[in-house]
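Our platform keeps sequence and structure together, in a single record for each protein. Such a record has a labelled line for the sequence and another for the backbone structure tokens. Nothing more is needed to write down the fold, since each code stands for a local backbone conformation. For reference, a complete record is included directly beneath this paragraph:
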Amino acid sequence: MKNLTNLFVSIFFIGYIKIVPGTWGSLAALFIMHFLFNILSISLIMLVIIFIILFFLSNSLINYFSSFTDSEDSQHIVIDELLGVFFIFLFYDLIKIYNDFITCILIFVIFRIFDISKIFPASYFDRKVKNGYGVMLDDIIAGLYTVLTLIVINAFI
């Protein structure tokens, strides 16, 4: 069970890349979500259902991973980046700018800026909520900020 948990929360061990694992996790998440959304063309309702299931499963597995690694928010955990990017893709039709490539570049850059800067309330969840929800919610909030930013950009293009 530990190996499967490790595989899941690190997104196939991407979280073990020594340099900027969160950035690598975000990049992997972008490819995964692009595949699900644009290539497999999974419906929005199915994506919402998958997101909800993934959210609760991730909470349980992050908590389990934290218990056997004796850490609260290990840098090896990058499933939270996947959830943040996943959240953005739920609004893809509202935020698409010109084409998929440009949209994905903007998602990646803007999401990383918000994920790293942890603007309130993301900073609150990052510092105060010491469980899987805290690990994930700061990234989902970064995803929300990314969606709002891209909607504003879209309004002016």
Remarks:
- The mean pLDDT is 90.
- Helices lie at 2-9, 21-39, 44-69, 79-89, 92-95, 100-117, 122-128, 132-156.
- The chain has one domain: 17-156.
- The radius of gyration is 15 Å.
